[in-house]
Hints:
mainly alpha, single chain, 46% helix
Amino acid sequence: MAKPIMAKATAVWLVDNTTLSFKQIADFCQLHELEVQGIADGDVATGVKGFDPIANNQLTQEEITAAEESPLHKLKLKFNAAAVGEEKRRGPRYTPLSKRQDRPASILWLVKFHPELSDAQVSKLVGTTKPTIQAIRERTHWNIANIQPIDPVALGLCKQSELDKAVQKANEKKAREGAVMSDEERRKLVSTEQSLGLEEEPKMPAAIEGLEAFSLGGADIIEQDEDDRKDSDFADADSFFNLPEGDGEEQP
């Protein structure tokens, strides 16, 4: 249920000008029933001027009359077509003054490690402007030489869930466009929980890179050839040293 503007002042006016029950007023103004009773006793909202909900287009007299006649009737705000969708409108993210100096470092981190994020997504995450993002992307920012990339989550500029959601959205958009991603890019585009759950892919050491086409199957062939050889293929010791035939006595 929508809450009326200036709820406590509206409750003061309803207590003073109607015969509605404390519960009806409390439900309409989203207050506790004892708080409304305190308003009636003069213990709560002392000095608060009543806010007329009829004159301010929040209630109709017919609605108040129907509620006064039936204690079970719940007051309903008057429908205002001009206010439809107003509660969904959000302004730019507010960044405290103490953290505004950290925004360039966060932008540089997002641009470096998540280049798939659009300027609008980066702007929404850290609460900055598109010209600033563009200047950091093109390295034309006046202080670019002194900016070091820092995770915006670590700086408290956004939540990890918000960053994961933006990255996931970028992932889905890139998949719809049919772009081919490398394993490293795919790992960057998943959320933090999914990334931590992925198995580490084995990498070939740089020293033997390029030798993966060779196999050890030749060793079996060599071993098999050695087994198939006959004893006659090997010469005995006498033939190897080519000793002359004789009785083996030394010649003078």
